[in-house]
Amino acid sequence: MTQAITVAIDAMGGDHGPHVTVPAALSALKQHSEIHIILVGLKEAIEAELSANHAEISSRLRIHHASQQVAMDESPQSALKNKKDSSMRVAINLVKTGEANACVSAGNTGALMATARFVLKTLPGIDRPAIAAVLPNKKGMTYMLDLGANADCTAEHLLQFAIMGSTLVSCVENKPRPTIGLLNIGSEDIKGNEVVKQAGELLRASHLNFYGNVEGDDIFKGTTDVVVCDGFVGNVALKTSEGLASMMAMFLTQEFKRNVFTKLMALAAMPVLKAFKKRLDPRRYNGASFLGLRGIVVKSHGGADIFSFSHAINTAVEESSSGVLQKITEQLEIEHLKPSTNKLEESTLELSAANTTELKAIA
Amino acid sequence: MTQAITVAIDAMGGDHGPHVTVPAALSALKQHSEIHIILVGLKEAIEAELSANHAEISSRLRIHHASQQVAMDESPQSALKNKKDSSMRVAINLVKTGEANACVSAGNTGALMATARFVLKTLPGIDRPAIAAVLPNKKGMTYMLDLGANADCTAEHLLQFAIMGSTLVSCVENKPRPTIGLLNIGSEDIKGNEVVKQAGELLRASHLNFYGNVEGDDIFKGTTDVVVCDGFVGNVALKTSEGLASMMAMFLTQEFKRNVFTKLMALAAMPVLKAFKKRLDPRRYNGASFLGLRGIVVKSHGGADIFSFSHAINTAVEESSSGVLQKITEQLEIEHLKPSTNKLEESTLELSAANTTELKAIA
């Protein structure tokens, strides 16, 4: 019954390129018997990495040569204009032509979003794609969007994000009616800035399972399945969390390294400290989804290792097999979101792509 | 040489009222030989708490009776209209009349801000007061503002916040030119939403020691002394941090409580775990400053205990003795900020006060 899923991988993307992407692809092939992988990038580099891993081309694994690479600090404009044969762009092209169901890249976020928007276009009824990711919470997992694609949002954009987030969770987590929280600075309807107040009204009038306003701490309490916010607020919340986690880890390490006695205590407590560390391991949550495009695009952390990148591939496989795209389109129809704005959006897309310079590698 | 400083304390505010505020005041009197305290609230309740603590009225401690209290969930409008003899309002009145140099309250944030604005007015050149607080970072402490007073801000407001934050740190931390970071979603000047981009231009043109854009993780890295943002973003960042710290603490506890072996490990590591906990103890950072008013107002966490509330009193003492108000006024003159907008603001202040319903208890 399982349909074959093909994932195109930007093999050159990320800080480590093929050294990470190729072994991660091989690991994903072992893990998922139903998937096929196309490794996109410099043929020689990929072949070298395959042979280093004692692997070769097979019916489930092929190479698609692409002569260029997008640099990690390259501007979206430059990537769009000068890198038409980049591994990133060609991987996205494969999604566009239907040769692949999804693509995964650890390349730079701004260039990836701009290229994906330009090549794939947005879904009818979606003005702007959003970046969604999973964070651990006290009870399970919170899906949050937007995490940095859109610094300035309207209430309608937040509604579109909510629809996409809800559909993603219903598909991937198999939850029929995920709860949606609107990130705000108080629980009452009158709280917040103007955009958020209007978004609250739109969400209350929608068919979504809208919980109401949530606050920053609700992200990690797990109050709702989905937390919706603009890309500025989402990015700040995510980065602040990374900063705090890093500081807490540093403080804990410092306290354990204070003297010979505390070092002995650390030794004694090592199994627990390892279990704690594993539970918060960000690699287990790697793979942000670009939602709202006419194709599945998953962004891996640029510094991802093999374990981490293979998790991003898993995300692409899950989204492909659960039919997220089709279901988002259906949900948009239920909410009567007209695709008219979208048409306009597409015509000005080259221009808009320039705006995605405000995109920030999300981790 | 030390000048006597008088602090008016809203003795009825907070979740625990006089049970916390009175012993904290007694502790502060012991700690600071130069200060006087006025306990504002129900005379009988305060007297009862004094006698329970074997303390009495002295040349440095007096009671100022106020017949009403502002409830923790009372709206700012109601507090302004119906609670003209509340302990909160009377404590602020004492600052207005000059009988006290500062006031401290653990009462509800929205009512406190609205009342303080109404009674004290803003400083010339300041459109809106902001809430500033101290957070620990990897190297020391970060001052951050606004943390929730203003959900919608202009670039000019952010500049004003930067001036106030810079002056606060230079006074209280004795740093001549504190570094200022503008909270954003990328380090380049072109990043961010429209307001932040404009604020970046204003800050670059100012006399402040502007570092540039900072991201969420910089708050805890300690990249700059001050981090400036609008109240929506600041509140979300603060609450998100609280949520993450709470989740991490829960995970650590769960891992140590998993079985009899891990419990033994916890026992062995207890001194380190306690030191770690102490280092992150939010009570040590209690006391948010309402900056931009013609008087010093410090907001304590509503649930503060004696140790925590006395820290908020310390904050008020430090601000009073370092002449923050005068220096903010001087700095505003250096930046040529005209007090004209301020005039307009004051005339519409009853109206604006209603908007502070969006204020949220900051912790």
UniProtKB/TrEMBL annotation, chains A, B:
Which Gene3D superfamilies does this one have? Isopropylmalate Dehydrogenase
Transmembrane segment boundaries: none
Encoding gene, per UniProt annotation: plsX
Q: Which SUPFAM superfamilies did the record assign?
A: Isocitrate/Isopropylmalate dehydrogenase-like (SSF53659)
Q: Any idea where this protein resides? A: Cytoplasm
Q: GO biological process: what's one of them?
A: fatty acid biosynthetic process
Entry keyword set = Acyltransferase, Cytoplasm, Lipid biosynthesis, Lipid metabolism, Phospholipid biosynthesis, Phospholipid metabolism, Transferase
Q: Which organism is it from?
A: Methyloradius palustris
Q: Does the keyword Lipid biosynthesis apply?
A: yes
Q: What is its EC number?
A: 2.3.1.274
Family of this protein: Belongs to the PlsX family.
UniProt protein name: Phosphate acyltransferase
Which function does this protein serve?
A: Catalyzes the reversible formation of acyl-phosphate (acyl-PO(4)) from acyl-[acyl-carrier-protein] (acyl-ACP). This enzyme utilizes acyl-ACP as fatty acyl donor, but not acyl-CoA.
Q: In which pathway does it act?
A: Lipid metabolism; phospholipid metabolism
